[in-house]
Amino acid sequence: MREKLQNKNLWFSSATTILAVVISLLIAFILIMIFSDNPGASISDLLTGPFSSKRNLGNVISMASTFTFTGVAICIMFQASLFNVAAEGAFFLGAMFAAAAATLWNIPVGLALVVPMVIGAVTGAIICFIPGILKAKFNADELVSSLMLNYIVLYLGLYLLNTYIRDPQFGALASYQLPAASKISNLIQGTSVNNGIIIAIILVIISYVFLYRTKTGYSVRVLGQNKDYANYSGIKVAKVIVISQLAGGAVAGLGGAVEVMGMYGRFQWTSLPGYGWDGVIVAILAGNKPQIVPVAAIFLAYLRIGANVMARSGDVPSELITVIQAVMIILVTASALLSHIKKKIIIKEALSDGQNS
Amino acid sequence: MDKIVDVIFSIAFLDSVIRVTTPILFATMAILVSDRAGVLNIGVEGTMLVSALAGVIGSAFTQNAWLGLLIAILTGMAYSGILAVCHLKLGTDVFLSAIALNLMASGLTVFVLYLLTGDKGVSTKLPSKVIPNVHIPVIKDIPVLGDILSGQNALTYIAIITLILLSIFLYKTRTGTYIRAAGELPQAVETAGVSVKKIRMLALLLSGAIAGMGGAFMSMGYLSMFTKDMVAGRGFIALAAEAMGRGLPGLSLLSSLLFGFADALASSLQIFNIPSQLTRLVPYLLTIVALTIYAAGEQKKRKKL
Lengths: 357, 305
Known about the structure:
The structure holds two protein chains of two kinds. By secondary structure, chain A is mostly helical. Chain A is built from 13 helices and no strands. Chain A is globular, with a radius of gyration of 22 Å. The model of chain A has no long low-confidence stretch (mean pLDDT 87). The longest helix of chain B is centred in the last third of the chain and has 29 residues, at 276-304. The radius of gyration of chain B is 20 Å and the shape is globular. The chains are: A mainly alpha, B mainly alpha. The A-B interface holds A 35, 83, 85, 134, 137-141, 143-145, 147-149, 151-152, 154-156, 158-159, 162-163, 277, 280-281, 284, 317, 319-323, 325-326, 329-330, 333-334, 337 and B 42, 86, 90-93, 95-97, 99-101, 103-104, 106-108, 110-111, 114-115, 120, 233, 236-237, 239-240, 243, 275, 277-278, 280-281, 284-285, 287-288, 291-292, 294-296, 298-299. Chain B: It is found in: Cell membrane. Chain B: GO terms for molecular function: transmembrane transporter activity.
């Protein structure tokens, strides 16, 4: 019976999410028809652009891999009902410290891949830990503190980059070249898809097991659903908050490390890359479930690449996609409420069924 | 060190403190009115950005800075109105919707700017107007003080007037009382036969109007054009300023000034070979410290009760 209820609910929430996505795409089409001189071509580019070349399709996959890291990170943190958006800073500084470790230390070849990744993960964990501990200890609002923290991390990172690992021979502000042993190798020739995607998939599995198959993961979800209940049932709320934020931060930081080691030869971001916010969008689309993150990530990446193709060959700027994303987030969160109501109705029905029989 | 003190007490520095405080003060008031109604508007950041562009476009097409300001205010209300409808009618989480609107503002402004000018970064191609500076008679003749208090942008004085009007509105009018009650004891408002949702809707629209003025100041006072992502976190800093000001208009003015001071100091310190990246992170660091101290104090107070 319970399983049946859960299935019904899952079906309802996926149906409403898909409806939200369809509505936002329709809005996109309407906007294109208004602003484009050649709407047919623009819409077709948006929808099929990713398939126009092997390179574009590869970009969808590698971008989805990046979104998976930050998406999973946000899922873990949001599951604890903490609006910690420091994944953005964690990703940035994780990448930066991984690059610093790879370029400054003489790491033996056998460890040259692992050490920068560990450094990236630890860096990310520490960053997301800060809003977590401030919330747990002092009840400081994590949304505000993590927003501020992202700026601090950006400027601190730029300072360190400029002072310690800047390559003076290079034209722009960038780190030294990463040694070959610290680069993640390519997976599919002629595309940007690299072996980092394997790490992303493993992370999805680990975080699913963590959230749904371990006691700590259960505590995280209970805390997220009802803080008072978590308190009364003897869950150490402060500890669970800290663990979930550390875990989410580590995933984001590792994502940053994999990004710089797989996609670039040097660290050269001079502003926050925005992948943390993409992670928020992915997590919302995935209903904070890590196992659905890859699907949501591929979908978002597909839209982004499609929009790029559309902007390159037509007259509609790719920023159109930010409007669509916002509509999607709003509609999905609105339907999340709908599914909550639906759940209540189902439970009520089930209870009356029980009384009748 | 003496040099730093000299800078801080220079007329130019105090003048710049007032200039950089103005948008923070607008944003703080916008957040304050929403917070008092019990719906914290973290979308102020995006609202200001959209209004900043609307002001530039409006003033360019009407060739009148004040009409530009009006259009910025109306745009701010409309943008906040979207948040209000999403949260109050569709029942979305107010934080998530506001995050969505902030993300959208960043892209939407570039989208519109590109369609109008073919440029994705700045609005220099639009012949937009600037809100004038105001020289106050009598005060402008006072030595030193006159140089600081007079000759500021008209919107800076409008910010002060708005603050006074907002205090009167919140504490001396019936609607203002309902707004405060909607934040503290929504049941009481319902008991009085007034819809909490309507009161919150009103508060969010007011919040949008004030944020709209802040946006207009950014592109028609602080700078004389729109640039991509020009609000640059001021809406978020204001969240902390409002929290530190405990939602009280007077205290919020002081905390806005504190952040304005930190911001101005960050730019001034660059003269002394302190790396600019480090000085630029100071206001954000200060925000976290202030937020934590405030929250810790509140927590202690609650434990005593």
